[in-house]
Amino acid sequence: MSRFHPLKVTEVRRETRDAVVVTLAPREEDRALFDFMQGQYLTFRRAFDGEELRRSYSICAGRHEGVLKVGIKRVEGGAFSTWANENLAPGDEIEAMPPMGKFFTPVDPAAEKHYLGFAGGSGITPVLSIIKTVLADEPASRFTLVYANRAVGTIMFREELEDLKNTYLGRFSVIHVLETEAQEIDLFTGRVDAAKMKALFAGWIDPKSVDTAFICGPEPMMLAIAASLREHGLSEGQIKFELFASGQPGRAKAKPVSKADLAAGDATTATVTLDGTTRSFAMPRQGQSILDAVIGNALDAPYSCKAGVCSTCRCKVIEGEVEMLTNHALEDYEVRAGYVLSCQSFPLTDKVVVTFDE
Amino acid sequence: MSEGALAGAMDIEDYLAQGGVLTSPANVPARYRGELLRLMASFVDSELAASAGFAASINFAPGIKERIAASRITLEKADHAERVLAVMAEFGTDTARYQRQHDWAARVARDADLGAVRTGGDMRLSVFHYPIDGWADAVVMNVLMGLATGVQMTELTRLSYAPLAEVFRGIAPREARHAALGVEGLERLVADQAGRAAAVAAVAYWRPRVAATFGVAGSARHGMLARFGLRHATNAELLARWQAMVAETLGPAGLN
Ligand SMILES: Cc1cc2nc3c(=O)[nH]c(=O)nc-3n(C[C@H](O)[C@H](O)[C@H](O)COP(=O)(O)OP(=O)(O)OC[C@H]3O[C@@H](n4cnc5c(N)ncnc54)[C@H](O)[C@@H]3O)c2cc1C
Ligand code: FES
């Protein structure tokens, strides 16, 4: 059931002081799986100090380029992004899930559309993929990009964007907005906020000409742009969002289980039924959830968030008692019926019988 | 996230409360995720149960046209379930296991009283636990529930999880077509005396049961759902809108 597949790092290019562009190749047999739509992202996993982290990065290549590329910007104190910026090298292997995400519209070679993109900092990555794809595959469409950065030196893909302007003369334009460096026109300095949007629509972009708008940047920027687009008559369906923010809290430190804690009376015999097969094993009473014990015993139990919220890990306690630490998913009636979230449940009795089949 | 000095860090819940949109499972905070999965599960289960219910109605159909309409509704409701299930899959839901989880055709006794409470293992709306007992019954149920779905779609198509809102924007016109097929069927049905009598009885049976799908007024979860951008209007507002649409639809057929 593993949804992860190895990708080979074929190139690591330093894009700015704080960002790298990584080119990746799937195994021959995984090629079709990693066929992507412009604007989609890959989710990587890697263990840091024995703990698995999963992080998503948008593909910045166009569909026609035939390669997988991601741009990773180093976040201050960030585990994965720092590792990628400092350690990733050609020849390395990294595990990723097939592309996901819906930050795109279908390509139609006959389309004559005007796309409007807003990118803030590393938010350029999926937008770049979209720009390259539609310019190449929709010869009559055009794209206007509003690109916000702190300073000239932090602009990712600056040269590539210039090249695109020259390759697709008249069909692609970029409006850079820099926070710190004053430019000749006031409009291009500062943040992309309500006032700046108003000015953009007054003098530079005709909102009525826009078919679809793509936004990827920090939250306040996304809010300001979306509000302005709606105000200028774009419907929900015409506005596409991609948000990089992480909704999960930081790395939770798992309680270490020491062998000494496992004195007599601290262990439990768990009996688990899954897919019609029943298996018994010993597990500690503390520090390990029923779900982790089940997985540790090579039973392929369904789970997802391991946070007590999706209920994919639900099982039914037939005998014995467990303590459920968090429950954001099961209704009272289910709990009364004996269901628990296995990822949140710890045995209280020396025998526990559960089933995933009922 | 904050892009360095580009913008101050912003709490995701504040972002949502201000109308922000989430775009991937990675963005989603734990509580939001629970509610989102619950919402999706409820829709998927309701569509699968509705499809299973309509499958049986195909054989009640008096003519070919009606048979095609019922078949189409059966097919498309299952398809809609599959589309939403695909979004759940991105949260780790085992979709193959999920669709085998329940007996979607199972129904309670015709005279059971479930109120708005969900029963059994699945999350289907209570109305989908009641059996359909003939063609007039199927038509009326489809009209009333179709209008209710239309009202719910005004919420679902703008909820704050973009990949799901987009799925609903694709589904909404087809669900509207199901309701329209129902209204066409109703017009044919009430054209004769016996049909009209059956329709009157069916309206009396289904009206309160469909009304119950809007949930209780002043639901405790509403505040949280609204802050999350998963709900906009209240249950009472949606119910009132449905009641107005029902009156408008049944009036011309003389069924109010
Ligand atoms: C769908 C999606 C696509 C993405 N695409 C890209 C991409 O193309 N390029 C890219 O560089 N990133 C992208 N991201 C962000 C990326 O997944 C990570 O969140 C980011 O690299 C930080 O991970 P980390 O492990 O380095 O930091 P962590 O160890 O998770 O975080 C360390 C600290 O930094 C804070 N932090 C986390 N993220 C940010 C941020 N973005 N800015 C400022 N502070 C932060 C955290 O709150 C924490 O305090 C994407 C995210 C999503 C959800
Ligand atoms: S895995 Fe999601 S609630 Fe347990």
Q: Describe it for me?
A:
The complex is a heterodimer of chains A (358) and B (256). By secondary structure, chain A is an alpha/beta fold. Chain A has seven helices and 18 strands. Chain A is elongated, with a radius of gyration of 25 Å. The model of chain A is unreliable at 249-263 (pLDDT under 50). The longest helix of chain B has 28 residues, at 30-57. With 256 residues, chain B is mainly alpha-helical. Chain B is built from nine helices and no strands. At the A-B interface, strand 4, helix 5 and strand 11 of A face helix 2 and helix 6 of B. The structure holds flavin-adenine dinucleotide and FE2/S2 (inorganic) cluster. FE2/S2 (inorganic) cluster is lined by residues 303-313, 329, 341, 343 of chain A.
CA gyration radius of chain B, whole angstroms: 19 Å
The shape of chain A is elongated
Alpha-carbon distance between the two ends of chain B: 54 Å
Query: What series of H and E elements makes up the topology of chain A?
Result: EEEEEHEEHEHEHEHEEEHEEHEEE
Question: Mean pLDDT of chain B, rounded to whole units?
Answer: 88
Number of helices of chain A: 7
CATH homologous superfamily descriptor of the largest domain in chain A: Nucleotide-binding domain of ferredoxin-NADP reductase (FNR) module
Count of alpha and pi helical runs of chain B: 9
Major sheet of chain A: 6 strands, antiparallel
- The whole-angstrom Rg of chain A is 25 Å
H and E string of chain B: HHHHHHHHH
> From the helix content, strand content and strand pairing of chain A, which structural class follows?
alpha/beta
The CATH class label of the largest domain in chain A is Alpha Beta
Ligands in the model, by name, code or SMILES, are: flavin-adenine dinucleotide, FE2/S2 (inorganic) cluster
